[in-house]
Design brief:
The chain is of the alpha/beta class. It folds into three domains: 99 residues, no CATH class; 61 residues, Dna Ligase, domain 1 (2-Layer Sandwich), CATH 3.30.1490.300; 135 residues, Nucleotidyltransferase, domain 5. Helix content is 38%, strand content 28%. The protein contains eleven helices and 13 strands. A hairpin with a 3-residue loop joins strand 1 and strand 2. Helix 5 crosses helix 11, helix 6 runs antiparallel to helix 8 and helix 8 crosses helix 9. The relative contact order is 0.15. The structure holds adenosine-5'-triphosphate and magnesium ion. The site of magnesium ion has 5 residues, from loops.
Amino acid sequence: MFIFDKGSLTGVDIGSYAIKAIKIKGAGASKTLSRVAYSRLDHIAIPEESSKLSEILKNVFNANRIKAKKVITVFSGGSLTIAHLFLPRMPKRDMKDAVRWEMRKHVAFPAEELVCDYTTIGEVKRGEDFANSILAFGVRKRDIEKLIKIFEDALLEPSSIDVTPIAMLAAFNHNNVWEKGVSYSMIDIGNSKSTVAIFKDKKLMFTREIAIGGKELTMIVMENLACTEEVAEKEKIRCGVLQGSEKDTLITTAIFGALERLAAEVNRSFDYYQAQFREESVSKIFLCGGTAKLKGIEDMFTHSLGVPCFVDDPLRNIKIEPKKFEPSRIKEFAPDMTVAVGLAL
Ligand SMILES: Nc1ncnc2c1ncn2[C@@H]1O[C@H](COP(=O)(O)OP(=O)(O)OP(=O)(O)O)[C@@H](O)[C@H]1O
Ligand SMILES: [Mg+2]
């Protein structure tokens, strides 16, 4: 058991609402949940209160007896810039420099502070020639350094930093069967934002961040009920977008309006994807992130987008020992954990 465990990293997803950490042991079909942690952050301002975050991180690891020091995490929001590039055919070793050169034009900070990476989608015909179709990610170096410092101050070692859609792809890959040539979408609806990803043939084909998440839904309920944020969040979770009593209509209508705006943005992304890649439409959508648990969201998105939507369970193919964890409690938090699970995988 110990040997299996040796190489595994703890996936840590620090969101604006909660920290999620997960450790998975074993290989292939025998992957088993080893450790899991979820901790709400209660309005910590990053980066001003980064030291508080390190303290919470340390406590989360101690309280959940996660002894591993090596972690893998994500960088999202902030200075993250995503660009879809078409570059001429060239040797792989030159690609990194070419991507860097192109990304300089896309970022709003000095080029010498750019840290970037990319994933190749494939070759496409552009006019007479073939081009490499690439998804590139750029962040500001000092933002990465701040993230690393949060972990180091918690006595943890980030071995790797990834981006949300790549973690989502890893979770999707472990839990679903791919049909050749079929496009799937996964949408992480978090607190401050949502991340749309489209996958095909085990590759990330498209991704985009949309600045609408659960926090906006809470704020809309708060305005409509003229109540505190705490009460608004409870009411949001209680009502969702399900038709309820007349009193609830005010809440569900307000939430519905904001979600329609999100669905419209997702639709625009799908249209772009279809036009750009001359692809078939997306065949299924999986929702994850805390807001994926909103009552009625699956049906609402299915109707709005005309594509079947499902709430993701990233632990579907991971064994949960009932002696160690209470499965129903773990399942309750499953959609929130997708990014952390993907990292751990
Ligand atoms: N049962 C529920 N129904 C509806 N919304 C919920 C439910 N549980 C949590 N949420 C909402 O989910 C959001 C938190 O989701 P999540 O943990 O994915 O965010 P995060 O990853 O911390 O944030 P981000 O990635 O946007 O910075 C909050 O807005 C919260 O109100
Ligand atoms: Mg998140």
